[in-house]
């Protein structure tokens, strides 16, 4: 539901300072898209080291990574965890801590290819600073 500025201001009853804090939070909240590429995905062999390239794209390049929150007792910089695993087997294949200080960045995770057969893997991109900013992407691989 869209409100006119006057109606919104009357309902919210926020001071100018509080409105500025809300605007700062909304403007800094990370919106991230997650994609991946897996070389030789049609000829994966069990036990062989494999690299997966993960691309993270923000909607805008951040001016800085300072977290907008009064809950931290100190200055906090935004960080992310890239995690690769298989939920059904409760296995973790790779994990890496990264920062997203550009609009688009690529990271490589190295992992040992699981046993032969079909596997449903998941990539998680977990933010250590903002709730509900995390991303998740599942895909299937067939290992020979």
Automatic annotation (TrEMBL):
Assigned keywords, A-Z: Chaperone, Endoplasmic reticulum, Membrane, Transmembrane, Transmembrane helix
GO biological process: spliceosome conformational change to release U4 (or U4atac) and U1 (or U11)
Residue spans crossing the bilayer: none
Subcellular location as annotated: Endoplasmic reticulum; Membrane
Keyword Lipoprotein carried by entry: no
Location of the SEC63 domain: 24-139
Highest taxon listed in the record's lineage: Eukaryota
MF (Gene Ontology): RNA binding; RNA helicase activity
Membrane topology term: Multi-pass membrane protein
Cross-referenced SUPFAM superfamilies: E set domains
Example of a GO cellular component annotation carried by this entry: membrane
Main location: endoplasmic reticulum
The protein's name: SEC63 domain-containing protein
Taxonomic source organism: Marmota marmota marmota
Species classification: Eukaryota, Metazoa, Chordata, Craniata, Vertebrata
